[in-house]
Write a structure and sequence with these properties.
By secondary structure, this protein is of the alpha+beta class. It has helices at about 5-10, 20-35, 85-95, 165-179, and strands at about 45-55, 60-65, 70-75, 75-80, 100-105, 110-115, 125-135, 150-155. Strands 1, 2, 3, 4, 5, 6, 7 and 8 form an eight-stranded mixed sheet that branches. A hairpin with a 5-residue loop joins strand 1 and strand 2 (about 60-65). It starts with a helix and ends with a helix. The mean pLDDT is about 95.
Length: about 180
Amino acid sequence: MDRNFLLEKLHQHNGIDVHEAEMRTRIIRFVEENSDCFERTLLIGHITASALIVNKQRTHTLMTHHQKLDKWLQLGGHSDGDTNTFNVALREALEESGLKTIKPISENIFDVDVHEIPARKNEPAHYHYDIRFLFEADNTEDLILTNESNDLQWIPLEHMEEYTTEESVMRMVRKILLR
């Protein structure tokens, strides 16, 4: 698998609005211009992958209160050289939740987002070009909190704005509610 597989998936993805379409175009350009786009060592930015996990009834989604960013987000992380963003999203979801069974609703891209990550000790400010997939899990299964999170909760979709007003999260919630 290589960059061309991701580019093919990106070209197939239709966003919900103009903003998401612009981000898709931006990610395509980034992938085309950077052969090392999956590497964290690319200091201008890199491809990341996320998993939006919903329960079977599609009423709740599993969110983490991210320790470093201090906000509620979907599970996900760095590709670290893995060009299969679907597998990266699944791996991160399993590692960050402790869930034993997570099943894909689709292997197609669910959402895309480009966001800036603030500078930290040894890292300059850079962009995450995030490829997001939709998964399903049993919300009665035990969760395991990792050192990357302050909290991990199944949040009712109808009450998401009480936890975050991040447009990229709210856009994914709207997509679920429209299904």
